[in-house]
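Help needed: design a sequence for this.
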């Protein structure tokens, strides 16, 4: 079976954050880094060229496909922030309704800037995602 395209790297997270061009995106990314560290208790690791991941889990699907992935994390893209909430947003309607301006994908939460959302609610979303993930596949430090 093919390996996941996105793998952990040795890229320096602090240097990556400092190199983000847009000042608001850079400041938001630094706030998110601290938030994810506080919530998870994990040191960040770069996954691929742009995802900052916190913790990891090993999954095995019914099809037999298996691999490792970051437990949670984010990417500071040019147009928006993408937060990775595994395994997705089931049972989070109550929180998402109170979060503020955002969009969702399968396991991504898209935010233009942190000023658009309620940070206390965002913290709850991240925590609930980790709890739900850990109930399926154990989350551990990288």
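Sure. Designed sequence:
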């Amino acid at each position: 079976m093919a390996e996941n395209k996105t793998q952990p790297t040795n890229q320096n997270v602090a240097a990556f954050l400092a190199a983000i061009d847009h000042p608001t995106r850079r400041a938001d990314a630094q706030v998110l880094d601290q938030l994810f560290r506080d919530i998870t208790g994990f040191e960040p690791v770069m996954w691929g060229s742009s995802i900052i991941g916190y913790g990891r889990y090993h999954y095995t699907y019914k099809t037999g496909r298996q691999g490792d992935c970051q437990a949670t994390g984010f990417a500071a893209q040019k147009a928006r922030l993408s937060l990775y909430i595994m395994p997705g947003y089931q049972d989070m309607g109550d929180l998402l309704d109170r979060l503020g301006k955002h969009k969702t994908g399968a396991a991504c939460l898209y935010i233009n800037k942190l000023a658009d959302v309620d940070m206390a609610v965002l913290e709850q979303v991240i925590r609930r995602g980790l709890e739900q993930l850990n109930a399926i596949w154990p989350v551990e430090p990288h």
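Residues 13-114+127-136 form a domain with the Aspartate Aminotransferase, domain 1 fold (CATH 3.90.1150.200).
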